[in-house]
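Why do we bother with a discrete structure alphabet at all? Because it lets us treat a fold like text: something you can write down, compare, and reason about line by line. To make this less abstract, here is a complete entry for Serine kinase of HPr protein (Carbohydrate metabolism regulator). Read it the way you would read a sentence in a foreign language you are learning: slowly, and without expecting to understand everything at once.
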Amino acid sequence: MMIIKDLIDKYEFRIVTGEEHISRELKGLYCCDLLSWVMSHGKQHDAWITVQTHTNIVAVASLLDIGCIIVPENISIDKETIDKASEEHVAILSTPLSAYNIFCCFYELGLR
């Protein structure tokens, strides 16, 4: 089993919002920036990598019960998005890592 806290403890991930969800289980990893595509292909409990930072990502994550949103490469996240994620109980993580390196972390933690 893999949880959000594993990413924070072992790699360069920091929690932006959703501290109360760090024990949430992650069952998959999905990377896409086209929101309509994520809505049709993302799965419950996925960690979702996206460079999008507007509030619509929170709506998609909430709709699918995404495990967390991961914003790579230290991309700045809109305050509105952070506030909306807090309201909707959606965890957002930030990392300096690229999407490829994020996949490597998940692989090292046993997610296949």
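What the structure line is telling us, in plain words: The chain has a mean pLDDT of 96. The helical segments are 4-10, 35-41, 56-64, 79-88, 99-108.
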